Amino acid sequence: MADADAIVIGAGIVGAACAHALARAGRRVRVIDARRGGATGAGMGHLVAMDDNRAELELSSRSIDLWRALAPRMPADCAHSACGTLWIAADDAEMAEAERKRERLAALGIASRLLDAKALAAAEPALRAGLAGALEVPGDGILYAPNAARWLLADAGAAIEFEQARVAAIEDDGTLLLADGGRRRAAQVVLAAGLEATALCPELPLRPKKGHLLITDRYPGTVRHQLVELGYVTSAHHAEGDSVAFNVQPRPTGQLLVGSSRQFDTTDPAVEPAMLARMLRRAIDYLPGLGELSAIRSWTGLRAATPDGLPLLGAHPWREKLWLALGHEGLGVTTAPGSAELLVALMTGTAPPFDARPFAPGRLLETVA
């Protein structure tokens, strides 16, 4: 006998969004999670329209629209803020990239505007002098992902049942074997457990990317927008080696959340002083006053990345009943609701909200079958 219409493995922001979307589609959902923590509790919580390619931009743009629709019902502790993003251009070459980015966003109807050096200084006086300008994307925002995930699970009421347990194996017929020996069954199973999914499906092409973050004490009004260097795409997002980039968020508490760093293929969770110092030097170069503020905590997290940078959203090519929502790297919070909407459309046989083919798991898994 089935324990639910669908089981979701993982209660992070992506798993919670999938469960929420399945419940809204009329499914009885069981969410199973061991509560050992993951990327949702360690990330920045940004909601950013990313445009490395059209598929990524469609997914992130649709997701931000969905977050915007949910925001009026979300409790205050989800800390949603429509602060917008300023993509900072350090020189004329990066201003040219800002213009190209503006054109790419406009092609999908996403509003943005270029700021010259004077307008940037007026918008964010704490930035260093001499910057060339910025691209402002006012529709971006931030939220506190752990509380948003909990709210998504609670918002569906009795349609979602949560079980704290560790899934030890997925059997050939889709039955889940729990670590305590129990078994759970459903017509459909969604695997949304981030990097831990590789313990259940070793064939998944997921690679860890470690990141450092730091948060300051409360200094209200220091920064108004999320700030990201335009060099982020080349200095961090696609790099193979260790890298850092300037990324600062103003949290509703008045604190500043400072990132970002990337390190490949390590699962050591320890804060590394050398990497943290490198990240902070980068941030202080853009925001000199940051060096005068008190930091209260630093930590690390592991992102699950795919070889082509797009998540796996769809049916597993050969495992019975299994659907995948994995590999969101640093965009899991941004793209959780759009990923869930797309996946649930595929699971229920309804029309996808946008082209699902770039995210099909088979594009990466068929070569390892």
Please describe the topology of this protein:
Layout: E1 4-9, H1 13-24, E2 29-33, E3 46-47, H2 54-70, E4 85-89, H3 92-107, E5 113-116, H4 117-123, E6 133-137, E7 141-142, H5 145-155, E8 160-164, E9 167-170, E10 176-178, E11 183-184, E12 186-191, H6 197-200, E13 207-216, E14 226-229, H7 232-237, E15 243-250, E16 256-264, H8 273-286, E17 295-305, E18 312-315, E19 322-326, H9 332-348, H10 362-365
Parallel strand pairs: 1-2, 1-12, 2-8, 4-14, 12-19
Antiparallel strand pairs: 3-7, 4-6, 5-6, 9-10, 10-11, 13-16, 13-17, 14-15, 15-16, 18-19
Kindly describe this structure.
- The mean pLDDT is 94.
- Helix 1 (13-24) links the parallel strand 1 (4-9) and strand 2 (29-33).
- It is built from ten helices and 19 strands.
- It is of the alpha/beta class and 369 residues long.
- The two termini are 31 Å apart.
- It has an eight-stranded mixed sheet with strand order 5-6-4-14-15-16-13-17, with helices on both faces.
- It has helices at residues 13-24, 54-70, 92-107, 117-123, 145-155, 197-200, 232-237, 273-286, 332-348, 362-365, and strands at residues 4-9, 29-33, 46-47, 85-89, 113-116, 133-137, 141-142, 160-164, 167-170, 176-178, 183-184, 186-191, 207-216, 226-229, 243-250, 256-264, 295-305, 312-315, 322-326.
- It is 29% helix and 27% strand.
- The protein is globular.
